[in-house]
Design a protein that fits this description.
alpha/beta; Rossmann fold; 8-stranded mixed beta sheet; 22 helices; globular
Length: 649
């Protein structure tokens, strides 16, 4: 299929293209290649491509250095790149509007001023993307660029972003309501109320957020391109993402199925391709209203202008045929001896698996939990997913969900529904607040509807990451009951995992402010709610303490032998050290086996230089090399086989 002829990419009115999907599927490559191609074929258009993912990879894709300032892409006069600095944008926002924010917070009649000030700190998961989209609004409104192309964060966090837009509207409404008594008093004193700069700031903010929704849903100006891998989890995540996009009325026309193995005379390649075709067929049957574009797996990394151009030509309709190359002899190197068996001798309580999207974190976590359960029949183990996109069910080939499931007599799995946990918490809060005000109004025979509403509205200012933190804190409850001996955690992709690990301090501060505010407004009758808040705070503090205890916790980093894998591993380990989380072990996953196949040999030769680089950069860490297997690693048998390789069986 020729994407150029059939997609909305060519609409003259198109101003905004987003690429999204599962972590590690090639979203950045697709975004960069599209930007490069459209810049070449539309020299009269000024194009900006930028990343809203906390783990930026655009620089790596273009083979240059991008940052938080718009940078011209080498070799182009009409193409620019940007890797958004969300914390920097937030700080700039605060500096520009500090007087307005302070005025609004000071006038808030029933909120603690600090709570409203904290609302604008934005140091929370999802705010990266939200600030990025607000930045796009500025760019589009300024008319400086004809087309903006956005490389989004992995599926789960993109879906959360869509919810944050509505949450922001709700929170601005809360701030608007908090000004009512001040405006009423001012009008009584002066005869009428005249809006000032602080009010106009609130109006502009509301307008900008509404504008985000308007642009995202305009099929004349916007298209969201879904990128998916030809595998079971790719089908599931694509279905989930498409449902969320449809619910939010965001236009989608194309699904790029990326990384399809070529047809070559190689049992390994053909086994993988045969497996992929099964899922491509399923996608065609499930997603009939969308155009599917099959993109091949190239024998080399798609980095730099030349390789991006080759990728773009195929993406925009050029036929691709793999041309075998002479097999180059590989220099023999000393094999990386698996260090993972050393973990078996440790009496840990928490074992985390994390890394870049698409590196095999869930597989490594599931295989490890299975192996430990089989070799330690008297230890009770819980494997738990802290990622917004749960894939444990797919890995174990059984339904898990938030009720949990028994995998073995001593192995249990749980996919925590963080949103439901938070909604239950919120429901208890609302019920008790209403009960208190019902009693107060009955005793005093006065109308306290404003006070009731503002106290209930306090919960609209909760940090968006509180649900994820509550899910993590839930594990602390299990440790208190001693129900399980070991917890194995499958985490979110790097960028969002780091934000999650930094979150406890932010949430603890917010809980402090909420408790202080409830006490300030004589809400001590809300004993159960206060108790719940304080218990949650204690759990979060206990979780923090456990995460930094080397006797109880180990974080295993999973990577792949690619440039971006190395970059994110380095970044992740630096952050983990700064957070004092023990992180000695690294798994180099998906190493292609040595073969007489030209395609496999080309890929393996490229991998070799990165394995050497990893061995040098992380010489002080315990390294383990894991092969790419021809079949899917799903189900007990496949996971057991993978675990035997990992642990030297």
């Amino acid at each position: 299929m020729n994407l150029l002829e059939q997609s909305q990419f060519l609409k003259k009115s198109l101003k905004f293209i987003l690429f999204g999907g599962k972590g590690g599927v090639g979203k950045t490559t697709c975004a960069a290649a599209t930007a490069l191609h459209l810049a070449r074929t539309n020299p009269d258009k000024k194009i900006l491509v930028f990343s809203a993912d906390p783990a930026h990879s655009l620089s790596d894709s273009f083979g240059g250095v991008l940052g938080d300032e718009v940078t011209a892409i080498k070799g182009f006069e009409n193409l620019y790149g940007l890797e958004i600095d969300a914390p920097g944008l937030q700080e700039k926002f605060r500096i520009e509007h500090d007087v307005d924010i302070f005025d609004l917070a000071t006038r808030a009649m029933y909120f603690d001023r600090d709570i409203l000030l904290d609302f604008f700190s934005f140091s929370l998961p999802g705010m990266d993307e939200l600030m990025a989209v607000m930045k796009i609004i500025d760019l589009l409104n300024a008319g400086e660029y004809d087309l903006v192309i956005l490389d989004t964060a992995p599926t789960g966090h993109t879906i959360r972003l869509l919810g944050y837009v509505d949450q922001m509207l709700e929170q601005i409404n809360v701030m608007e309501k908090s000004q009512e008594k001040y405006r009423y008093a001012e009008a009584g004193f002066k005869g009428r109320y005249v809006k000032d700069e602080a009010d106009r700031f609130l109006d502009r903010l509301m307008g900008d957020i509404r504008n985000i929704k308007s642009i995202l849903t305009d099929s004349n100006t916007t298209e969201f391109v879904v990128v998916a891998p030809p595998e079971a989890m790719g089908v599931y995540e694509t279905e989930r993402l498409l449902t969320a996009l449809k619910k939010n009325k965001i236009p989608v026309n194309h699904i790029i199925v990326n990384g399809v193995n070529p047809e070559v005379e190689c049992d390994f390649c053909n086994s993988k391709r045969e497996n992929q075709e099964k899922y491509i067929k399923e996608m065609k049957e499930k997603f009939t209203e969308y155009e599917l574009i099959k993109m091949p797996l190239f024998p080399h990394e798609v980095r730099g202008a030349e390789n991006l151009s080759e990728f773009a030509h195929v993406l925009f309709g050029k036929a691709y045929e793999y041309t075998p190359r002479p097999i180059e002899r590989l220099e023999l190197r000393r094999a990386v001896i698996s260090k993972m068996p050393e973990l078996l001798g440790k009496e840990l309580q928490f074992l985390f698996f994390g890394g870049k999207g698409g590196v095999g974190k869930t597989t490594c976590a599931a295989a490890t939990a299975l192996y430990l359960a089989k070799t330690n029949p008297y230890r009770k183990i819980l494997i738990f997913s802290a990622s917004p996109v749960h894939s444990l069910s797919d890995s174990f080939e059984c339904r898990i969900g938030d009720k949990g499931a028994a995998i073995l007599p001593n192995l249990f799995a749980l996919e925590m529904d963080a949103k439901k946990l938070f909604e239950d918490f919120k429901k208890r809060y609302i019920e008790e607040i209403n009960a208190v005000f019902d009693a107060l109004e009955g005793e005093r025979r006065v109308d306290l509807s404003f006070e009731r509403r503002t106290t209930l509205d306090l919960f609209s200012l909760t940090p968006p990451g509180l649900d994820e933190i509550m899910a993590l804190a839930k594990i602390t409850e299990f440790t208190e009951t001693r129900e399980y001996d070991l917890f194995v955690l499958d985490t979110a992709p790097t960028g969002h995992l780091l934000r999650l690990l930094e979150l406890p301090d932010i949430v603890m501060e917010w809980l402090d402010k909420l408790v202080k505010t409830l006490r300030k407004y004589d809400m001590m009758r809300i004993a159960e709610t206060l108790k719940l808040l304080l218990e949650t705070k204690k759990k979060i503090r206990d979780t923090q303490r456990t995460l930094t205890d080397p006797e109880k916790t180990e974080f295993v980093t999973v990577t792949i032998p690619e440039a971006m894998g190395i970059f994110e591993t380095k970044r992740l380990l630096e952050e983990l050290r700064s957070l004092r989380i023990p992180s000695e072990y690294i798994i180099i996953n998906k190493v292609i086996p040595l073969s007489a196949c030209s395609f496999c040999s080309s890929k393996r030769k490229e991998q070799e230089k990165y394995i050497e680089e990893i061995s040098g950069l992380f010489a002080g860490n315990a390294l383990t090399e894991m092969p790419m297997l021809p079949g899917e690693i799903r189900g007990i048998d496949a996971l057991s086989n993978f675990a035997e390789i990992m642990y030297g069986g």
